[in-house]
Design goal:
about 425 residues, mainly alpha, globular, disordered C terminus, transmembrane helix, ABC-2 type transport system permease protein, membrane, transmembrane, EcsB_ABC
Length: about 425
């Protein structure tokens, strides 16, 4: 097999792996309640920005836009999609390694063009207030493309440097020099500056690509880098990673409820189980961080959507946070043996589920109800919208409890003692 075909085979395998990762997380429920509404909101906002609602950008300093463009050019990995088994073949034939690397360089160059075009397409409603001619806009696209391609190779050369001090100084120097060049060319706004900068960066990329294709002794480093980048989205979405990152500091005691203070005054079986579920969630930073990120995202969605669509989003968020609470309940029930012990005593599973999921849902939905009331009716609307949110939450959680906690004849529970007797 030719090295170029080998590269594209590795790329397709990585693409299939990333699709499987996202399909594991984004099922039909997440797509229906989160992904599709987000796409609808983004399309509605994008059309509104083109109609003139983004005119406030003219008052924003243009340096912020060029700083965002530079950060975009600096971000993004440069990958060769190498696997550990590839070293058996590439180390024996240097010409194969050079052809494989050149194919990856040209593929990355074209990939940067697509990324830059998408970035400019998303920011074009804002950039039209800074760039007044189509010639300058095309020149900026070429400049951004070449800058992103060139900086990707520069970052790989910096990563291969020896010495932390030398690497840090060169990284800071590159950031300062590149940021200053972006600010200077962007603030000038002349088409010649964009086209000249793109030509210079294209020459720099050609030189860096020639050096990179003849660089030796970096195969194992590139394999480790590609494996880390391969598991990047899996680590973010599934909280699993093939690379173990050592923590500098480990918290030995949780910040919330460090002494296990009771949440409910009455100590019934259902309340104790619900309390255990709630505390396990509040003591887990792994669960709290994405939860509050979702709360912030939903709050922004309520701020920018029209009135009719805002009410629909508010109802939708009630179901969304109920689904989140139900997933926490299922995870705790699956990995905690306490549930089987209490279930043998005949306690009310539905009561425990409803109390736990209701509290978990209220943590995020009540602040959103307050935002909904403030945006729609003013400050006084926050008060009665919190009450309305409480009522909607109770009804939504009741619907989920009715489906989750069905009769034992429909959903038989197996306990460890029964399983052992069956064996």
């Amino acid at each position: 097999m030719a090295p170029s075909r080998w590269f594209f085979k590795r790329w397709r395998a990585d693409l299939r792996f990333q699709c499987r990762v996202f399909s594991t997380v984004v099922d039909w429920t997440v797509a229906l309640y989160l992904v599709i509404p987000c796409l609808i909101l983004l399309a509605e906002r994008y059309i509104a920005w083109w109609k003139g609602e983004a005119a406030w950008v003219a008052e924003v300093p243009s340096l912020l836009l060029w700083a965002a463009a530079f950060l975009f050019s600096w971000s993004g990995p440069f990958r060769l999609y190498l696997e550990p088994a590839d070293q058996l073949f590439l180390m024996q034939r240097s010409d194969w390694m050079r052809t494989y690397t050149v194919t990856g360089l040209w593929f990355g160059w074209g990939k940067r063009a697509l990324e830059s075009g998408l970035f400019l397409g998303l920011l074009s409603p804002f950039l039209r207030y800074e760039i007044d001619s189509s010639l300058s806009f095309v020149g900026m696209g070429l400049f951004l493309w070449q800058a992103k391609a060139c900086l990707a190779l520069v970052r790989r050369f910096l990563a291969g440097m020896d010495g932390m001090l030398r690497k840090g100084l060169m990284t800071v120097f590159t950031l300062v020099l590149g940021g200053a060049a972006f600010m200077w060319i962007g603030e000038d706004g002349h088409p010649f500056g964009f086209y000249a900068g793109a030509a210079v960066l294209a020459g720099c990329w050609s030189l860096l690509a020639w050096l990179r294709s003849r660089q030796k002794g970096v195969l194992f480093t590139e394999i480790d880098y590609d494996q880390a980048q391969r598991m990047r989205w899996a680590a973010l979405l599934l909280q699993t990673s093939g690379v173990v990152h050592q923590r500098f500091w480990v918290m030995k005691r949780p910040w919330l409820f460090p002494r296990s203070t009771p949440l409910f005054r009455r100590r019934t079986a259902s309340r104790i189980v619900a309390e255990a579920v709630i505390k396990s969630f509040l003591r887990s930073g792994r669960q709290l961080v994405p939860y509050f990120q979702l709360v912030a995202f939903c709050a922004v969605a309520l701020l920018v959507t029209p009135t009719v669509l805002r009410w629909g989003c508010w109802i939708l968020f009630s179901f969304l946070f109920s689904l989140w609470g139900r997933s926490v309940w299922r995870e705790w029930r699956s990995f905690n043996g306490m549930f089987a012990v209490w279930a043998q005593s005949g306690f009310k599973v539905r009561g425990a589920f409803q109390k736990a999921v209701f509290v978990l849902q209220q943590i995020g939905f009540l602040p959103l109800s307050a935002v909904m009331g403030a945006v729609t009716f003013g400050p006084w609307g926050m008060v009665w919208m919190i009450g309305a949110g409480w009522a909607v939450s109770w009804y939504t959680v009741s619907l989920f409890a009715r489906r989750e906690c069905q009769a034992p004849s429909k959903q038989p529970l197996e306990y460890p003692s029964e399983v052992e007797e069956g064996r």
